[in-house]
User: Fold this.
Amino acid sequence: MSQPRVVVTGIGALSPIGVGKDAFWEGLLRGENGIREIQVMDTSKHRTHRGGEVRSFGILEDRWTAEEHRLGRASKLAIAASREAWNDSGLAGVKVPPRRIGVACGTTSGESQIFEEEVAEFLDRGHEGLNINRLEYFPVDVIGSSIARHLGVQGPVNTLTTACAAGNYAIGCAADLLRSGAVDVMIAGGADMFSQTAFTGFNSLLAVAPECCQPFDKLRRGMLVSEGAAMLTLETLPHAERRGSHIYAEVLACGISNDAHHMTAPHPEGLGAVTAMHNALRESGLKLEEIDYISAHGTGTPANDKVETLAIKKVFGARAYEIPMSSIKSMIGHTMGAASALEAVACAMAIQHRVIPPTINYRNPDPLCDLDYVPNEARNHPVTVALSNAFAFGGNCSTLILANHARH
Assistant:
């Protein structure tokens, strides 16, 4: 018996360039730079001072409970994105058994902001400064379970913590659950708030650019720490068709791997990236010439961009030079566990609107990065199949493939 196809029927997104999927997409097409001076923390002792923050999402909080207002920022971002994805899918008025709906959410830092703030209080005032009740909202699984409570979901709830690849992992996990028949609907994606720990850590690695993110540019100087959330409503195709829902794209495959090389550096030959792309292509059954667009991991660090370019050449050969690819991190920074989920949204919208978002801040060609990076301006281009890469610390690599569900 063949497994059911899995499709995207709802999208929610919060980013430094826009709150809501439409604002996010319009910001991408404008090539908007969401990087600004950081407001949520004092950066005076750091070597860099810029990053990406979601400036306001109050409009999405109007129906939250008192407990939800007490949640950490990552959970709030995740709930807001999930609610938009749920409403966008049209499921709000449809009777689906709650036990047949699940959640899969990726994250890197979880609710580390709660821990950071409580540690600061402890150092300032000792035990009297600690808010024990607030620590209830610190465990990483709170993010997924908070989405479930907000939507009244009673099916499986998974929180995946494979760092910057976590959004792809969550979407892949959700698709597997749908194909297995365990559920009919999944809310899947990723969320992360702006973390002092991440900002300090990446600065200590000298991996943060001082001004802007310039993926694949010869003079690139690093990534920018950011925050955001994106959630997608996934359904089996028969379930979506029965209710006549709008379909953005089909989830064809999610290839994963681990290069087992280094905690923070990619394998110099792109071993994990190559394996993840091969795994995704094999699972999808696609030929190389069927890929129309690549959403790059594209962090803007010297090592990552060079290795990702090399890996794509190894997988696609001469065809690599014909496939447009871009990095939206040039506009929104690195949103950690939300990154590949936001990139999945960009791919689904590119398939819908036949437009590819650009890689902004690209000025100086690099002979080691010599592919078509869609520099500085969005490009009209029919996208039937999009491939999205996400590579993370610890060697966690992933490749998601989305397609127009009516392509055949």
Notes: DSSP finds twelve helices and 15 strands in the chain. The chain has two domains: 6-242, 253-403. The radius of gyration is 20 Å. The first helix runs from residue 21 to 30.
